[in-house]
Description:
mainly alpha
Amino acid sequence: xxxxxxNEALASKSFDKIADICDNLMLQVxxxxxxxxxxxxxxxxLLGHIYIDDINSARFLWxxxxxxxKESQPELVAAWKIGQKLWTxxxxxxxxxxxxxxxxxxxxxxxxxxxxxxxxxxxxxxxxKMLTVMKLAIVxxxxxxxxKLQRLTEYVFHLEH
Length: 161
């Protein structure tokens, strides 16, 4: 099976494309009738959906994975634990699930990137197991150019009449 497109996405850190690449590859292989489940990168596929915050697709993928594969791949189970914690909005549990497993090098890259995305705007206190909101820099108001405002007003007036 050719995972070169997926490997390129991982190498270029295009983690937002992983889920679509895996979905398309799975459809191609399934259409050809080739047995693929034993060598399929289910953990990467699942983490791809989690990375783009598509928990529903992650749930459906998890439900479609045969129980024998779930039992034989502890990393897949660990990835799903992250999905479960996100589903219940247990963000402290998400951090515990991330830190609670020794990820392989291939999945570690995706998990670390997801953790970075998740931490934007939050800090985690391990002692109290609480998340706190980070204060963001104050955005200064933009000054409107009177000419732009006039053109916008004329455009809206044109649309209404």
